[in-house]
Hints:
Blueprint: E1 2-7, H1 15-18, E2 27-28, E3 31-32, H2 33-43, E4 48-53, H3 57-65, H4 67-70, E5 73-77, E6 82-87, E7 94-99, H5 106-112, H6 114-117, E8 122-126, E9 129-131, H7 135-145, E10 149-154, E11 162-166, E12 169-174, E13 184-185, E14 189-191, H8 209-216, E15 220-225, E16 229-231, H9 235-246
Parallel strand pairs: 1-4, 1-8, 4-7, 10-15
Antiparallel strand pairs: 2-3, 5-6, 8-14, 9-16, 10-13, 10-14, 11-12
Amino acid sequence: MKVVIFAGGRGTRLAEETQIRPKPMVQIGGFPIIWHIMKIYSHYGFNDFVICLGYLGNSIKEYFINYRMHCSDITIDLSRNEVQYQSDRSEPWRITLVDTGIDSSTAERLHRVRAHIGTETFLLTYGDGVGDVDVHQLVAAHRAGGRQATMTIVRPPARFGSTIVEEDRVVSFLEKPQAHEGLINGGFFVLEPSVIDFIDPDATGWEYQPLQRIVEAGQLTAYIHTGFWHAMDTVRDKIHLEQLWHTGTAPWKVWEG
Length: 257
């Protein structure tokens, strides 16, 4: 089962980082966030990726072409023109990198990788959100639902922390609890290839016209995820995810090592 990742947007709300790199290449704990996303899927045995490139897409190509070098200790012998890898890190990944246009919408990007998806059920997510989603359970829910599409629904973290008050006394702080109301699209889709037929060539975004059409056709199953989920939209989000990673409390790190 292939995993399609949207990785072409400009990430304007994270401009401090994305002026020089695409949003999926912004690092958390020394690794691009797209690496964290791929590690989640790989943990569940999904290792065939189709990445939809756009803005500064060549930097994503360069990272994966030179992945072994980026992730290993090396000895360079200039006189012999040799490179020896002293600690060789590798992943069982097959990665197809597709230029889907600098300013394309997410719907256009999905439409443009159709030939790489084939005729089998596939997975889809965004290149900026992590969570401890059990992908096996997600796929099982899709099979049980019997519809063309399944979308992971999450309750987003609150924008700010909460203060707990009793009468006129502050008794505790709660750092970024989940919002009490509203469920949102958390990515982590399971889709049949036929969903691409819902996309018009000039569709503004996968989240709008195509998904709305799928809903109207009664073909969208909700998979409600009550665990951790967080998108990296702002510098504040990046700092929060970094803190979780460096304190060893990153809930999305479902893999070993």
